[in-house]
User: Fold this.
Amino acid sequence: MNSVPLVELSGLPYDRGFTHGRALAGRLHGFLDDSLARLGHLSDRPVDLDSLRPGIAAHREVTAGALPDLADEIDGLAAGAGIERDAAWLLQLRREVLGYSRVTGGDCTTYASVRSGPVLAQTVDLNGDLDDQIALLAVTGPRHRSLVLSFGGLLGYLGVNDAGIAIGINLVLGGEWEPGVPPYLAIRHALDHAGSVDEAVETLCELPLATSRSFMVCGEERAVCVETLGSERSVLEGADLVHTNHFLDEKFAELDEINIFAKNSSRRRMAVVREAGIPDADDTAGHHRLLSTPPVFVPDNGDIRRERTVAAVVMRPDLRELRIWPGNPSTATEHVHTLR
Assistant:
């Protein structure tokens, strides 16, 4: 059974980061000591922090200009954990450092519905065997409190806030990946500040993102999907939305860089969810069953380089609730957290 530590973060940005780093210091040291946060296991070339410093600095410059509070929080994380500043920033940039990987075994299936009440659910499909790095952050931000899923020192991945806004994420491949704001930090910033779906969408559309992603935003009455490709954005809205790892926008689809085999997997997972239908908001068993069944659930094939499901999450914006099944969701213990 995987543990999911809950870390309460409050105060000034640097203080939030310091608390986070101190609480998980042992885990973060072990992660960084494991072939530099396991990047060495995932890359075809040697990886060392010194060679990555120029790229880290370029991302930090853009991020600090756009999100100075989160830049301070990352510096606090470094101090609290007793790690180098560049190492703390690297923990936010692992996906950007790895770059394009067009052949994936899965990379998250996300859906949202407001038909029978608001719900956003997804698998979290990652390489690197990251289920041992899961933590939940209970953040008191500058405007809103939130429950935020984290992996290995990340300030954000997905989550729900006290304004009734939930945000999920999928990888899509396209455009130039260049120094900018990591998408996971964009989600954290939106949860810290957005009081409505419109505000969350505006935030995700305006930030200078480093890499392409699809964001699913669910409020109490609306669900919206934002696809990003370079500086361009596409917004899709509906009562029921499903996203996997290929672009849905017709113009973006022409520039999709995903490998055909991975695209077939992506389409197959999307078709399964659409055919099954998104369960009612209060049908927790139905959501768990859908997220735990292949091909939506991507099993471990023993290759650390291949993406697999390391968690499944169901969020209820109206209840300010996040449910998580860490590791293999079909056998994992359910953890339920609610903003009070």
